[in-house]
Write a structure and sequence with these properties.
Pfam families: FdhD-NarQ
Strand content: 25-35%
Order of helices and strands: HHEEHEHEHEE
Distance between the termini: 26 Å
CATH architecture: 3-Layer(aba) Sandwich
Shape: globular
Keywords: Cytoplasm, Molybdenum cofactor biosynthesis
Protein name: Formate dehydrogenase family accessory protein FdhD
InterPro entries: Cytidine_deaminase-like, FdhD
Number of domains: 1
GO molecular function, one term: sulfurtransferase activity
Strand order of the largest sheet: 2-1-3-4-5-6
CATH superfamily: Cytidine Deaminase, domain 2
Helix content: 25-40%
Number of helices: 5
CATH class: Alpha Beta
CATH topology: Cytidine Deaminase, domain 2
Length: 142
């Protein structure tokens, strides 16, 4: 996948922490079952604008992208927060629509890291509290 023309979305590390804190309260299915993933669209400041849940992490992201597109929202002024690991499919879907940054609560796969690097996507893993690991394009996190 060639590098996409992605926005230079600047994300303060505190925004990652804020998004995580807000997301927990916005997951009603997870609160009921403890067994679903969420994909959240977060503004640059970390406030959560929209959340979609599903048993499958890929489905949760598909639902989120569809909801954002239906509402006419752009994909260039924020980031995605996933409650799962970051697989190459997550990166591929995000890059395809122009999402410049993905944060995941768990680890990225090696293939996800390689694809994110090639596609120009900032990939953050192990986003937990005030700690996180930036795997690709760290210039967006400052």
């Amino acid at each position: 996948m060639p590098p996409a023309r992605l926005a230079d979305t600047a994300i303060h590390p505190g925004a990652l922490e804020r998004a995580q804190a807000e997301l927990a309260a916005l997951q009603p299915l997870f609160q009921l079952t403890g067994a679903v993933h969420a994909a959240a669209w977060c503004r640059r400041d970390g406030s959560v604008a929209l959340v979609r849940e599903d048993v499958g992490r890929h489905n949760a992201l598909d639902k989120l992208i569809g909801a954002l597109a239906t509402r006419g929202c752009g994909f260039d002024d924020g980031f995605v927060l996933m409650t799962s690991r970051a697989s190459y499919e997550i990166v591929q879907k995000a890059a395809t629509v122009g999402i410049a940054a993905i944060a995941a609560l768990s680890a990225p796969t090696g293939m996800a890291v390689r694809l994110a690097e090639a596609a120009g996507v900032t990939l953050v893993g192990f986003a937990r509290g005030h700690r996180h690991s930036v795997y690709t394009h760290p210039q967006r996190i400052h």
